[in-house]
Design goal:
The protein is an alpha/beta fold. It has helices at about 5-20, 25-30, 50, 75-85, 100-110, 115-130, 130-135, 140-160, 165-170, 200-210; strands at about 35-40, 60-65, 90-100, 175-180, 190-195, 215. A hairpin with a 6-residue loop joins strand 4 and strand 5 (about 190-195).
Length: about 220
């Protein structure tokens, strides 16, 4: 039996450093979970959600899957969303993809990888919907980057259309849905221009996002 001792040693060092900096860190963490943000991101190991936004454990509720996809039949994602909105009362839902996403690139190339091909069919649907814009974006890297951006916008739109968010807006619960993208090459986040706080803003928010390219901004 392999126990991965290096990881346990890393964990001991991490826990000790947390206590050294903040003696009551774990006592407070155990007492409550009250994040303001839900992060729906890619499962890629190069995109550590808490770290890239500088938040500590307990400050960011996280759901991740390959290519940051939001599907209305995915009970895992929907359960996280419902718990975040109805129980934790988060105020912001951030859908964050990243450039260089292997899942998006596989969907663009039509690669056959196995079972995951069925999941990436959702990203291929995004390509089909926006194929003119993607195919006219430039070389292969530019097309992949644009599909990464459009996939995030489309998944943020899906979040807005869930019954969870729709019901929250109808009872005047303050929730803003955002679409961001992360650069592996520089560690920076870009806002994709999609920030929707009500059903009324949905169409205008989508139009704004589709008509703009991301601007580098600190978050």
């Amino acid at each position: 039996m392999t126990s991965l001792p290096d990881l346990f040693e890393n964990n001991r060092r991490w826990a000790a450093s947390c206590v050294a900096k903040h003696p009551d860190f774990f006592a407070k963490l155990k007492a409550q979970q009250a994040p303001e943000y839900l992060w729906i991101g890619c499962a890629d190991s190069r995109v550590p959600a808490n770290e890239i936004v500088g938040l500590r454990p307990g400050e960011l509720f996280v759901h991740r899957n390959v290519a940051n996809v939001v599907v209305h039949s995915d009970l895992n994602c929907l359960s996280v969303l419902q718990y975040a909105v109805d129980v934790l009362q988060v105020r912001h839902i951030i859908v964050c993809g990243h450039y260089g996403c292997s899942g998006v690139r596989a969907a663009l190339d039509g690669a056959r990888l196995g079972l995951i091909d069925n999941w990436l069919r959702h990203v291929q649907d995004v390509h089909t919907k926006y194929h003119v814009e993607v195919d006219n974006a430039g070389d292969l890297e530019a097309r992949a980057d644009r599909l990464c951006e459009l996939n995030v916008i489309e998944q943020a739109l899906h979040v807005c259309k869930t019954t969870v968010v729709q019901d929250a807006w109808r009872r005047a619960q303050p929730i803003v849905v955002h679409a961001w993208i992360y650069g592996l090459n520089d560690g920076r986040l870009r806002d994709l221009g999609f920030g929707v706080a009500s059903e009324r803003e949905l169409r205008s928010g989508l139009v704004t996002a589709l008509n703009s390219r991301p601007q580098l901004k600190s978050v």
